[in-house]
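User: Watch each token:
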Amino acid sequence: MRNFGEAPPPPTFFERLKTGLSKTGLGAVLTMKKLDAAAVAELEEALIRADMGAGPAAKIAAAVARNRYDAEIGGAELRAVLAGEIAALLLPVQKPLTAGDGNKPFVILVAGVNGTGKTTTIGKMAKRLGEEGAKVTLAAGDTFRAAAIAQLKVWAERAGADFVAGKPGGDAAGLAFEALEKARANGSDVLLIDTAGRLQNKTGLMAELEKIVRVIRKLDPSAPHATLLVLDATTGQNAISQVEAFGRTVPLTGLVMTKLDGTAKGGILVALAARFGLPVHYIGVGEGEDDLQPFQAAAFARALVGAEAQPGTGETREQT
């Protein structure tokens, strides 16, 4: 119990995620109702508006109605059922990022268009990995933006990570090669390589991404061991074309979804899972160091539909 006049505790990650995802507007249709044809159609349309895509929306709405058609259902029960169906679809992509598998350093290449929060995400990942006991090196491969180099240097200092950078405008592939050499020499467990933010239709920049992969493979034929694409949830369906384009350029191994605290399109994660089946390693809800968390399918599904937090899962805080 809080003392009178004491400031309320900051919201948990789940609470921030739930508040952000409330912008999808699903709450308006998740009230007590009879699950007849009109109600199921309304639910399906709401899921589509949340950017889940027509196919997944139809599948989820049908699953909710199964064995409940024409039955009265309360709002809380409807949210719980819907969350369960969404979680079932998302569970196959709930896979933590494991930086190991005998590769040292474990090379992680991080890509994404400008504005997704890519460089910040790399910094947060470095901090998490460092806290887990890994020695990390960060490579400032976004050589086009001096601000990105400076930003990554700050994150390296916060995370206690080694930092490799070149001159602004320099050759990103050469910088990545140098970073891998240094990461080997200093005994790093993980090398995180930032890359220039690029639109998926800029062929020159996409070719540079291919070159980075070719060059680091001269040192380690198995690298990169993970290639992550950072996506901004507010872009909605455009995220699909980004995954397609980057996937044609480099073999993607996983996704990170940022800015889920400011979008009405949170359902895009469901559409991506259904379409590509790529692991979702992390989701983000803000700029703070702890605002990037491992993706949890059930918790995300509950937040998306506005269901209550599940006790004992880290979604709630202990009351004192």
Observations:
- DSSP finds eleven helices and ten strands in the chain.
- Residues 13-93 form a domain with the Four Helix Bundle (Hemerythrin (Met), subunit A) fold (CATH 1.20.120.140).
- The longest helix spans residues 75-90.
- The beta strands are 33-34, 72-73, 106-111, 136-139, 162-164, 190-194, 226-232, 254-258, 280-284, 292-294.
